[in-house]
Design goal:
By secondary structure, the protein is mainly beta. Helices cover 3% and strands 41% of the residues.
Length: 139
């Protein structure tokens, strides 16, 4: 006799991978609900995947022992990429151990407004917008 594992990923269309006594994947419905059918008794690892989101918990270990298993639920949290525009100007971000800044320039793009401390390297993309006649040049 076969059984099922069901639950919710909290994101519509999530892929729900399973491995163990059998392996494969199913796709969550428009409400994030999923059902993995046709499973024999055994231990299974259930792992949801949704592009741009991370699940909590990352996976769930489920044991089928003669009955269906329900309530295998996950919560999805958005993961923002480096190109995400939801940060404000002049905000410091830590990217793989290095400091990176969003720098807002003045409205006429003549002079940059820079939040970095004096002596810090200046991004060449920032210096390229300073008019040539205002750059320090050797005499």
């Amino acid at each position: 006799m076969s059984h099922s594992i069901s639950g919710n990923t909290s994101k519509a269309g999530s892929t729900v991978n399973y491995s163990g006594a059998a392996s494969g994947f199913v796709t969550a419905d428009g409400s994030g609900n999923f059902t993995i059918s046709g499973l024999a008794d055994g231990v299974y690892q259930i792992t949801p995947a949704t592009l741009g989101f991370v699940a909590s918990p990352i996976h769930s270990i489920v044991t089928i022992a003669g009955a269906n298993v329900t309530g295998v639920n996950f919560t999805a949290a958005a993961v923002y990429s480096e190109l995400d525009s939801r940060t404000s100007a002049n905000a410091e971000k830590d990217v793989q151990g290095t400091d990176e800044y969003d720098v807002q320039t003045s409205s006429n793009h003549n002079l940059p407004v820079d939040s970095r401390a004096a002596g810090q390297p200046v991004d060449s993309r920032v210096t390229s917008i300073i008019p040539v006649n205002t750059r320090n040049t050797p005499h």
